[in-house]
Specification:
Strand content: over 45%
Number of domains: 1
Number of strands: 5
Shape: elongated
Helix content: under 10%
Structural class: mainly beta
Strand order of the largest sheet: 1-2-3-4-5
Number of helices: 1
Length: 82
């Protein structure tokens, strides 16, 4: 597993100005929800955020970031809903 997931910050009509990096990804939850330290790096500054939650997809060892979610994001198992 990689320690860092880097995402370019850009849109189709704008240039890349930096990257968002998730570092020290930890899986204290079930259901592919992880916590990580998030760092925004630009040419002028580096901003470090405290722990964020992220939905991670693991396909045979290839790890992909699905979404960065709210700290209040929770997964409720189907058994509890029924």
């Amino acid at each position: 597993m990689r320690d860092m997931e880097s995402i370019p910050v850009a849109t189709a009509d704008r240039a890349v100005i930096g990257t968002i990096e998730l570092m020290d990804i930890d899986y204290p939850f079930n259901y592919n929800i992880g916590e990580a330290k998030m760092v925004l790096k630009t040419t002028n500054a580096t901003t470090e955020l405290n722990k964020v939650k992220a939905v991670i997809e693991n396909n045979n060892g290839k790890i992909n970031l699905v979404s960065i979610v709210s700290k209040h994001f929770a997964v409720i198992p189907n058994q509890l809903i029924m």
